[in-house]
Amino acid sequence: MPDENEKRNKHAIADDIMKRLSSEIEKRGIDADTVLVGSLARGTALKNSDVDIFIRFSRNYERAKMERAGLDLGFSIFPDATPKYAEHPYISSVVSGTKVDIVPCYRIEFNTPKISSVDRTPLHTQYMKERLTGKSIEEVILTKLFLRKQGIYGSELKTEGFSGYVCELLILHFGTFYNFMEQMSRLSGRLVIRDNVKEFHSPVVIIDPVDLSRNAGAAVSNDSLSVLKTASKFFLMFPSDDYFYYDENPGTEPVKHERGTYLLALVIERPDIIDDILFPQVHLTRKKLGEFAENMELPLLNIFDHVEEKTVTVLMEFASPSLPSIEKRTGPPAGNMNVVSFIEKHMNSPDFVRGPFVENGRIVIEVRRKITQFRDIFRNNLENINFGKNLNRLKPGASILDNQEEIRKSDAYRAFLSVKSPFLSARKDFKK
What we know:
By secondary structure, the protein is of the alpha+beta class. It has 4 domains: 116 residues, 2-Layer Sandwich (Beta Polymerase, domain 2); 110 residues, CCA tRNA nucleotidyltransferase, domain 2 (Poly(a)-polymerase, middle domain), CATH 1.10.1410; 107 residues, Poly(A) polymerase predicted RNA binding domain (Alpha-Beta Plaits, 2-Layer Sandwich); 43 residues, no CATH class. 38% of the residues lie in helices and 22% in strands. It contains 15 helices and 15 strands. The strands form 4 sheets. Strands 1-2-5-4-3 form a 5-stranded mixed β-sheet, sandwiched between helices. The protein is elongated, with a radius of gyration of 27 Å.
């Protein structure tokens, strides 16, 4: 967690920016104010966290005018800032090594209709500042550190985990980190907190007290919840500080052995889009490649995606590099009128090898496969596999690599071998 010096420096940065923004707002006669939001404002920030400042506009402004004014105000403080786009535009800059976001929103009250989803954020901060005490703040930080170690901290589509706000709601509900661990270690189904005001079907349902129609835990995937359930069991069995220690540059484990499998790697250029747009497409690509392998009856053992600064890689691990040269074609039941046409079609084919014969009441004929190598099967079918809007545009430049030595030296392969989710620090204590 950040030391007192880091906290003071970040609050000083925030205070200075808000003062300058307020001066610009007054000078321009804009009906708006500024507010520090997020974990820094609530005292639950982890080390190297961002500074998030919101400009709250009157609801009398049309959305387009509000967005333009928000950007203009941000650029008046940081002329060289980077414009970014989520639900609506905001600006991002760096001050003394600290990332600063300036985000426009509308000023709303508790449980009143929002115009954009970020309108709730200042209310989240107000709600938590009124309820989190010194002790509960410490419990929230422990929760965040634990979830971060497990790779399930953050509601971004890259992570599909628990946001900082959700961590705070969890501690308000369970009281302490230890109680939270105990409850999660015994949880067998979904995690549901507070009565539903409407039906939610997500793995985690936590009704947002600021907006009772919203599930604050909607971003959490079933896999992330499963990691939490598993890790909490082992933490209670073998408590360790390792569960809270976070290495900013963990690297990857060296390759210690050959797996005796066959590897293929799809490598495609990383498009210049935000993570919340990119990662759903990366996950879609992985899913569609897996479905294609299954439909083609390829012996796929594992499929893994890895995103780097300039490339996206989907690594596929197979039991073998090719299909048998002979393929069985199973036709209709013997009593079906299409039996004759099925037999004529395949026996007159230049690829015919053997048959016809009957298996389990159906006509079977063996033919020779034209393409057997997996690399060729994928190369010939990439055009028909959906990668998502932005990755599809880059498909012509995609490569299917099968040089085994080259793949095993890649960062994607090392990341694949290094996966520990859930992280279990005390494996030595239960290994026999």
